[in-house]
Design brief:
This protein has about 150 residues and is an alpha+beta fold. It is built from 3 helices and 8 strands, in the order E-H-H-E-E-E-E-E-E-E-H. A hairpin with a 4-residue loop joins strand 3 and strand 4.
Amino acid sequence: MAKAATQETPFTFHIERVFDAPRERVWKAWTDPEQFRQWFGPKHCEMLYAKMDLRPGGEVTYGMDFGKARMYGKWAFREIVAPEKLVAIVSFTDETGEKIVVHPFMENWPLQILSVVTFTDMGDKTKISIAWTAYEASEIEKRAFEE
């Protein structure tokens, strides 16, 4: 992966959480499609499917049903260092998972987000750190992300 693709900007979004489970278990929750389906997405949403090709150049595609609306997305993997790091370009897609589309609720949201997820071993716990950066975004998309 090109080095520039992982550089953060002043508007990189960061979040961290510690989970009461060993790193191998948490890694599997993120990288096994059946486990991924059990937790990914907001409350009260049904995961329609999650397909995963876990390799650089592979991707996750998924569909979510919110009752009155459906949403589809994908993560195009750039780098995978098991069980330490996942780097992907994240986007919303059409139903086929092929075409990138605008965010269903925020038309100026960036079409692509660089997502870097790290899994830090803390013995019987795991810290997940996520960094999101607008990727190849227009000025309008950058402003929406920054706000």
